[in-house]
User: Fold this.
Amino acid sequence: MSEVYISAVNTDDAVQGLCDWSEKYRADKGHAPLAYVHSYGCQQNVSDGEKIKGMLAKVGYDFTDEIGDAQFILLNTCAVRENAEDRVFGNIGDMKKLKEADKELVIGICGCMAQQEHVAQKVKNSYRQVDLVFGTFAYNDMYSMLWEVISKHKRIFNQSDVCTEIDESLTQLRDDKVRAFLPIMYGCNNFCTYCIVPHVRGRERSRKPEAVLAEVRQLVEQGYKEITLLGQNVNSYAYGFPQLLCSINEIPGKFRIRFMSSHPKDASFELIDTIIDCEKVCTHLHLPVQAGSDRVLKAMNRRYTTEKYLEIIDYARSRVPDFSFTTDLIVGFPGETYEEFCMTKDIIKRVKYDNIYSFVYSRRSGTPAAKMQDDISDKQKGLWLRELLMEQREITSEWFGRFVGRTVEILVEGEGRTGEGYLTGKTDENIIVEVEADKKYIGEFINVRITKAMNWALMGEQV
Assistant:
């Protein structure tokens, strides 16, 4: 049974209490109370972290990147892979000394990892320095929980799994002033056997199109140049995802539209046509295949075959021969043979991805795959992963060559890795470009003629 927090104070009273407390803190200390909010994992988590920062700013907090300066430390956690959880436990272990030095310090963890009851129990029993643990369904209670921790010195744990209405009133305090993440839906209905996400984020809930469109208009007015729509499976957006893309495309202004992720079982020719025909939608699709063996895909409960997957690839390439694809791949799924792993290598040769995000299978307690027999050693999985990455490296080096001699438009993101005077940005296809240019172009679109292709990026000259 999930542990559910029932507030002793209503939200309005908690907000007022926190505002009064932060005002007194400012008067006593000469500065606002500082919060350190760190988000692990996916873009959805980053977006959640920005909403949390918006909530904290409302009640008087400022923010710091120095954990030792904070009066409130909140780790917004990820549960997708085991090493992410290990990192969080290591970090909160290190915070014991901070708590001993400042008894008024509030330490909390939230997000996907915190939604799991075994994690909450471990923190409750073994990490007494942590005051606040709440999962993905409890953001609406954050003011009440935080106020009770501060005013009554209570430890609060909230793993409620009751879905609430999507709160459109929350203000997102975005870290990036050029690129914005914009969730259009939450949760997942797919229940892939290896994935913990549906268990910690619940079933799919979609935002109304009018709310999404209003937020996009606001972002464009604020000067954002790239907006990434987020959903565990954007193709399942309840009000029609291609239709939403078309509506956003009609909003006036110079900006790009990206999105992730797209589940292959629901990807359609209509989606491909929309991407290609809408000039603001980037000609790039992140389409996670996960494995090249149909038997493994069935064991993963992915509900498509490699033939179905390749139909989408082939249709896109029939319209745009070098249409850009990226993908996710799992190496060493329980029961996978080396021959089946080689089928995954065949897929990447066949598709020619611009990039792959590949991971060794990570067992997640509570998922069906965790109960499957896994005879592949960690060493063997590591060797397979290295083999896959070497294969992709050769593909990328050759495939990126198609851009040499072309002039492309990039959105400049910051200083490059190449050296002094170089900036980095991305093409419409989401490929990194390094170019020698003035820093005044950071946050702007510029044209670049590509002169060289490497296995991780393109080099070019500003036109």
Q: What stands out?
A: The chain has 15 helices and 19 strands. The two ends are 62 Å apart (CA to CA). The mean pLDDT is 94. Residues 378-399 form the longest helix (22 residues).
